[in-house]
Amino acid sequence: MSYAIIRMQKMKSTAIKGIQFHNQRERESETNPDIEEAKSHLNYDLHNETPIDYLETINKKIEDGVDTGGKKIRKDAVRLCEFLITSDKSYFDGLTEEREKKFFEKAYEFIEDRYGKENIVYATVHKDEKTPHLHVGFVPITEDQRLSAKEFFGQKKQLVQLQDDFHKHLKDSGFELDRGTSSDKKHITQARFKAETLEKQAKEYEKKIQEIEKLQAQIKKVESIEVKNSLFQRDYVQISKTDFENMQNQLKKGIATRDDRDELVGTIEKTKKEISWLKSDNLSLKKKLDRSEEYKGFLTKSLSSQEQKNKQLEEENSKLKGQLKKMVEFATVSVKVILKEALEIDPSKGMEKRLFQAYMSFRNKFFGKDKGKAPEELQKDLEKKPERSKDKPDFEIGE
């Protein structure tokens, strides 16, 4: 089963220009080999008809929608929150073009309804990479006109609720997908696979260079053959039989000409550049992988610690509930006992005196020899039939 994937990333002003270049394909990417430029014309924006300046648009939304109270927005404030929305490649392969577009339109509709169309900056669909996906960016402006990403995503339960609501929205729209998870396990696996693939390619290129350099050395050996003149002024080449046979073999393979040599030199230089890029990208991916694994370990440890704290709090809460229940039961029965005893007192006395006397009697029982009576024991006292006065009391108490 495929998953409904939605991930959120917070961005400060320093990252926004780079996101614009990537989303609108304004520059050739040097770090993402998955982009097929021949398909870039298939990309589209569900929010904007033409390319925009991200930073200019964001600043305008902040200027119009945020009440700063005369204060300047902090330079390190989060100005943009971007959602990445997608599923796996096999899921999109099973959709028609029309159905695929409907998927992204419904996803955009979810973000629009949840965070406000007026706060959205872009909604770009990329079809020139291996898996189609949607980037939606919005400025985190609250209803009370504050710029606060923390208000939207400051608590873990908000991200969990986001996953739940997004999955429900797509399912209600007719897209049968499983709920995505907040774990980066799949991302980590992809990063590891990509790193291993690049490392394998780098080794293959290094092997190829060694073979080319070996051939280049053989070419130089052929070129270094000395030409001498004989006594009869006839040109001849003086080489050993072994060298001659080697030269014949190389000539047969078509690698001993100068043109071939120049081509090989060019291939070597090109291959070296490719290896340099691959190694750089591989190192970058390995660093990301290490950070992902480190963050995963931190989350696992934090989750375990939090679960332990939650368990302790639940136990304490249960204990307090039990104590409170006993206190309420004791207070209820105590009042009944006091009122019951008040009925047994001489009716000729005033209400206030009778209640006070009943209370003192109860107090002596509780703090005297019967100190610490449980509610059930007091209930037994209450159930004893009182010896009522012959005179009718001026009030009665029901059970």
Would you mind describing this structure in some detail?
By secondary structure, this protein is α+β, with helices and mostly antiparallel strands. Helices cover 59% and strands 11% of the residues. It has helices spanning 13-23, 54-65, 89-93, 97-115, 149-153, 156-172, 185-223, 241-253, 258-344, 351-367, 375-383; strands at 3-12, 44-45, 78-86, 120-126, 133-138, 178-179, 227-229, 235-237. Strands 2-4-5-3-1-6 form a six-stranded mixed β-sheet, sandwiched between helices. Strands 7-8 form a two-stranded antiparallel ribbon. Helix 9 packs across helix 10 (351-367).
List the main descriptive attributes of the protein structure presented here.
399 residues; alpha+beta; six-stranded mixed sheet; two-stranded antiparallel ribbon; elongated; disordered C terminus
